[in-house]
Amino acid sequence: MKIATYNVNGVNGRLPVLLKWLKESAPDIVCLQELKCPQNKFPITEINNAGYKAIWKGQKSWNGVAILSKNHEIQEVQDSLPGDEQDMQSRYIEAIVDQKVICCLYLPNGNPYPGPKFEYKLSWIKRLKKRAGQLTKMELPAILIGDFNIIPTPFDVYKPEKWENDALFRKEVRKAFQELEKKGWTDALRKIYPDEQIFTFWDYLYHAYDRNAGIRLDHILISPYLSSDLIHAGVDKYVRGWEKTSDHAPTWIELK
């Protein structure tokens, strides 16, 4: 089974890119972030015609997450991250697909640091860690997947010295990522490629993609009850080179 995540940076504006990638890559489950469309503007007809069922949580102009499934029904669990009823940002959707709990997330960017946006990011991470703990306590085969807006280590960024006080690379968020790993969640891409520098995002500015001046923001963390099923992982970097594409590239795993 192939499970992927892709920050599309506008699902309607990048729809031709998304559909082309879906046809070529044919993942079984796809998590999308940054839909940037209200609920009623999600291109469900085109997604269905591509062979996928979908659930989604839209938001006008910003955020938005979706889960697509090619071969299995999608049973929605919740469309927001528990712990803050006042949080109206569409950043989390959770479902059961093929007996796996798929937690699709678009974690807050947090910039500028310091400030209220960074505090919101830390509080969001705290809620995510609590949900992750519940899933492991229930011994469920679960996946935390999406754009984490966290650069886990200096190895995951081009010129890390320039990012020290960026909210993506602050020690607080890196520590939180490490704490998830210590609780048994496996960073799938790093498990498969422990010594290879891999990026999932390249800025539109300064020819970042051409220079491979990237960062790794898109992650797939698998619970202890799935770790032995991991057989492969990768990044479809070439998609970032397509015309009118997202600044992220699709990231994926394969499970037995």
Automatic annotation (TrEMBL):
This protein's record includes keyword Ion transport: no
Pfam name, any one: Exo_endo_phos
Signal peptide boundaries: none
Cross-referenced CDD domains: ExoIII-like_AP-endo (cd09086)
Endonuclease/exonuclease/phosphatase domain ranges (all copies): 4-248
Cofactor(s) required for function per UniProt: Mg(2+); Mn(2+)
Top-level taxon of the source organism: Bacteria
EC number, UniProt record: 3.1.11.2
GO molecular-function term, one example from the UniProt record: double-stranded DNA 3'-5' DNA exonuclease activity
Record's keyword terms, sorted: Hydrolase, Magnesium, Metal-binding
PANTHER family in alphabetical order: EXODEOXYRIBONUCLEASE III (PTHR43250)
Family: Belongs to the DNA repair enzymes AP/ExoA family.
Name under which the protein is recorded: Exodeoxyribonuclease III
